[in-house]
Amino acid sequence: MNKETAKKKMLVRLYGASTAIIVIVVFMVFTIASAAGGVNFLKLSNLSTIVNQASFLVILGVGQALVLLTGGIDLSVGALMAFSTVFWGEGLLKSSEQPFLFAALMILLTGAAIGLINGLLITRLNIPPFIATFATMYACRGLGWIYLRNRVLYPLDPAFRTIATGKLFKISKFVVKWPMLIALLFLLAAWYILCKTNVGRKIYFTGSNPVAARFSGINTNRVKVGVYVASGVIAAFAGLMYVARLNACEPGLGTDSNFEAITVALIGGFSMAGGYGNIWGVAGGALVVYTIQAGMNSLQMPSQLQDLISGALIIFAVFINQILANRRMQLENDLRDERAARLEKN
Amino acid sequence: MAENKLLEFRHISKSFPGVKALEDINVDLYKGEVHILVGENGAGKSTLMKVLSGAYEATTGELYVEGKKIEKNSPRISEELGISMIYQELNLVPELSIASNIYLGHELRKGPFVDTAAQEKRANEILSEIGVQIDSRTLVKHLSIGAQQMVEIAKALSRNAKVIVFDEPTSSLTDSEIEELFNIIRLLKKRSVGMFYISHRLEELFVIGDRVTVLRDGRQIKTDVISNMTMDSVIESIAGRKIENLFPHTRKQAGEPMLEICGLTGEKFSNVSMMVRAGEIVGVSGLVGAGRSEVARAAFGVDPYTAGEVRVCGQRLPGNSPARANRLGMCLLPEDRKVEGLALALSIRENIVISSLKAMNPSGIVGQKKEREVVQQSIRDLGIATSSMEKLAKFLSGGTQQKVVVAKWLLSQSKVFIFDEPTRGIDVGAKSSIYQLMDDLVGQGAAILMISSDLTEILGMSDRIYVMSGGSVVGEVDSADANQNDILQMAFSNV
Questions:
Q1: Full-prediction pTM beyond 0.80?
Q2: Which terminus, N or C, of chain A has the lesser number of Cβ atoms within 10 Å?
Q3: What pLDDT score does A304 carry?
Q4: Closest partner residue to B392 among A196, A329, A338, by Cβ?
């Protein structure tokens, strides 16, 4: 193997790890900035908190990633979280006589129903995903406020709150909590579906070229409705986690969650154009988004500045991912051709 | 003669990583000459022209324009040297007028403003010089593909082009438009414009060409004046082997009706009825815009129809659902494979298996090992030229892409095939293997409906032929008693 080929192989690997590199850079920046203030950013208890909080974002990001893969977008997730938990929130209360599992199940079903509405608006009425989910976002938020008015439902059943606050075990000072396990399960399930099943193939193909997908006999409408329903259910689950953490159901929940979810998926290497992205990137995206929030909080930066930096970072990450994705495809292709040419020669 | 030499490639080679795209090419072009470049997809024709246009830089070798060596080429420099490219996919802005398109980027000015009146006047002059009678204020979106091509030529002339490169100019033109184009090319010859002309339609060589260069695998196989060549010798040097019989199709025993289209009516066609039996290849001929592809799309369920019905193997299709049609064993090889046939950013493997997922993996879980074996087998069976099954579809040549689409449908166990322009833009070697494949398919009891604008292909491959004109079927003939003239006459009958 010559030097040129070795260099290309290295670049392919490097480009493939762009999200991981962003994570490392962000960690390094905050480690240095915190060290200047005499704080050890990398201490295990701190890392444990970061990973735990990022887990909430992972769940949101997984749902959004599925939608992005088909070339869509789901803006309604934050409002959906609020509405579904507010509507069935009485059943999650400590004072409730029903088991909280019933309310939780209804919340997930509500998420599925709103996802179904999104999917039908998009496929039956041909409303662009951005507009359709934008509208359901407002509708859900409004319904939440109308239903609950100025009340807040609290405190919630402590057994239910375990999903957000429960500890599993400790490795030295790194506390492994329920959210981490749940996020990992979501990632594993999404990875399995996307990479190992017929459904996953159809999702990628539909996003990559919806017209060719239809010509290939894929029921693209069903695929699209499917991902919006999945996104709805996942958002409702995230809603459960958030209210469990907050110990209250209130209609103002998750006003930024839709944007966070999109940011997580974009930094994780998913493309708005659809058909491209690796689900494990979501984990990286979530770490970056949360670290920036937490890191800047600990440095006591104003939240407006946080928004500014998040915006800049999205542009940077999308730019990098886009360019690198194309370069990587080209390089991988060159390497394949070279390998075949070498084999032929021998 | 030397002063008539417009340009010359000397010992041009171009390497991409792992591939030699061009090797020691020596080609020249004289004033008023039509120099035809032929070769299979990936033979290096387009690469050579990209070296000329400055899009690529040659690895070694020299380019001379009017005796002067071009040290460093770029798209801008080549344009200044009077070299114009007219691509298959036209580069016009549909919402602008003909005149604005012609002067796009080179606007005539009056002070700081664009002198629209002067542009329109000058554009009209150029258009009438090449015998086109269209007002230059017309918006490009209202023009036919043929007329748009004329605008491209006018654009080249407005920049005093000395060399014009035509890349498959006739692939989407009707016969009358082709004749018009050839007239303009003859006119340009008189005005000493030199032209490179890339085409897969070999009969055109003998109509319009002066000299021919055959490329194969990046090497120059032959350059000679057209009078020293015959169709057979050209085909042989393109393919690098003798192709005995381009159309291998023999008539099979026809069986039960497999595809029945009864009284289908839609936006661009009305009351269309067609039937294909097992073992039959049925051709659909007609002019561009006769509604052939529209019928195919509606029958397959991609587009809606307002009346009529479609039956596959006796079962009525619900309409508007390609997924259902496919489940009953019907498939459509679309006209535009890049847009309708392939997910370009996915691999050959993912593209080939996409329509067979359920049959291959009934549990819903992809069997990775079996999948690779199946794909490897189709790559071998169809002779798909690739370094790996993981290669992304966008990196394949047109002919190879078409084979991938065919492979996808073969794997899906379809029995009723609609081929829409199956060999457009495909070289003669790949053509002959696709024809062989079609013959094998009907030999195994499949039914094929083939839409094609290439009359030799229609006559060579079909058992029966439907002729469409103006959205209706105007005739049905047995190919044994059909000839090109009859078909053409019918095709024009209802325009």
A1: no
A2: C
A3: 82
A4: A329
